Amino acid sequence: MSETAAVENLDQAAAEAELERLAGLIRHHDQLYHQKAAPEISDGDYDALVRRNQAIEARFPDLVRADSPSTRVGGPVAPGFAKVRHAVPMLSLGNAFGAEDLREFFARLERFLGKDGAAAQEVVAEPKIDGLSVSLRYEQGRFQRGATRGDGSEGEDITANLLSLDQVPAQLEGAQELLEVRGEVYMTKTAFKALNERQAEAGQKVFANPRNAAAGSLRQLDPKITAARPLRLFVYAWGALSGPAEEILGATQWDALSRLAAWGFPTNERSRLCGGVEEALAAYESLAAERAALDYDIDGVVYKVNRLDLQARLGFVSRAPRWAIAHKFPAEQAETTLEDIFIQVGRTGALTPVAALAPVTVGGVVVSRATLHNEDEIIRKDIRVGDQVVVQRAGDVIPQVVRVIEAQRPADSQPFVFPKTCPCDLESPVLRDAGEAVARCSGELACPFQQVEKLRHFVSRGAFDIEGLGEKHIKAFFDKGLLRSADQLFTLQARDGQDLPPLKEWEGWGERSAQNLFAAIEARRAIALERFIYALGIRQVGEATAKLLARRYGSLKAWHAAITAATEERTAAPEATKPAEVGEAFATLCDIDQIGLSVADELCRFFREPHNLAVLEALEGALEIADAEVPKSGSSPLAGKTLVFTGTLEQMTRSEAKARAESLGAKVAGSVSKRTDFVVVGADAGSKAAKAEALGVTVLSEAEWLDLASS
Ligand code: IVH
Prior knowledge:
five-stranded mixed beta sheet, 26 strands, globular
């Protein structure tokens, strides 16, 4: 910027003109940076513009413009695509990795549905398309909006990009008020090869596989780029509808697919109707045989219970439907050299051995690391540094070392010796509990690796999802003593520049990136309870469990109080093996569907540690933690009530009854107490019915329960 005059030489008129020029220029670069992710100038040059603007404003305070760049703190936080909340969440699928798993799925349908289980054995087998799932919203038959799956609850608005796919109908004939159609956007193998050739010629990035190419193309901020990339679509499911699915789409999945096709949506012609598990397995074999010849990638077969009424009864377990499963094709394999074994320390102190591999392409992706799981696995497979090994990769799973090719083992190779101390500076002893495969660093909260991993988990996607705070940065903040526990994130900005130079002056940072980071942290001061619980990184409390806890207790206060009470009870009864013997709060915790004794014990373990409580309380003080949405609460008379089922039910199995009650916002407990609202009594009920009478708890017959459940 040598051609511009020094600030002290500017007169009033020149200053005014210069401020105008700078406001326009900075706005222009903000847009390039934030909206197009394509900055034209370096951080340093940008900062120079901002500083020049500030210097002029300081000399001529009367000239500060209404749209002054200095009042727009950090500019808009990277908007990219607008967020879209899915009216009906976009779910994932459970996996079957072999015929046995698939037989178990069919058996589970029988068990859950009891006498209607036989009817559920009719399934549709569809190719599992390896692309990106999207949701297309039609109102009054017009295409209104398209979104990515995102985290399942919230995706990104990619309407403009989807409009450029000629397979997305803009208008449906005679369609409903509201129809959300779901499917997969993919790129053909042919188009993928051609695109990569063009990219390589133009000196641009080449994609690892068609899926990545489709993702990169669909998530272009400029829809013109998307339009120039040949993306295609298959639809296979739906979300929100303005009426019953049976009326809009038909009685079965099979009918629904033909209805969707009649509206002009592309459906996959290789889908098959199967009369039971044997036919399902045959459909799998024939798709596996065709796989290589297809011009699009498929990574398995999805089976869906055909009747929609049975789908509705089967419902969902956390994020996946009970009525569908994905049967994955075997993982792709390749051979390479294992160059080294190093140890990674996870956030709970678990030591995981990792193989450093000579880079090799496995199913279109270059792999240079693979997990070795644990010490026993290394011993069992006798894996040594220098070995030639077979690696495999299935879907998004971390690559694994399958086996060693012993014939090619170097003569001087030595068995791997698992370390006895943590690789961190403290070198804490490694402990392995009897019967446990996992070795852990005994340093607990003192181990720097664990601390950094905990912080990484805290800001990760399913937790606080703080953009721009990668591992490298966390490690730098940690090493400089700025960030030792999660609560300190929220004082980072206030402490900026206090003991150390301000962040914007650090190597690799600038005014903008520092402002963006602080803004991203500020934006997360308000957070959903389930994300908060997940972020704490309690052992065995993953996203699904955190959600169950949030839904059961509703608010931070209730959750905190309940776990505190359960912890006190557990501390007083450390030897008890039955939840009811420990105490009521502990038993209530164990009673939550899919939470058992061991998860409850981990929660108590966390709550017993004073350091954890200090961090927890500091966070609670700094944040606004939103109450959980209780599913359909209020609309059902069962919402918020606690039920106990006993005896044999006629109309549905115990599993179905429990799932139904929970979907209406009720809690299902295993034993009757004075906190129970209803006891549902089937045939041959035993002591629980008697106990209900004794405690004065309302007893319902099966018919009365069904009435309540459907009102
Ligand atoms: S059904 C509740 N059908 O696989 C229904 N999914 O691993 C959920 N996928 O997120 C989806 N082909 O992106 C379904 N024929 C198919 C599919 C399919 C590919 C993807 C989809 C889903 C993922 C789950």
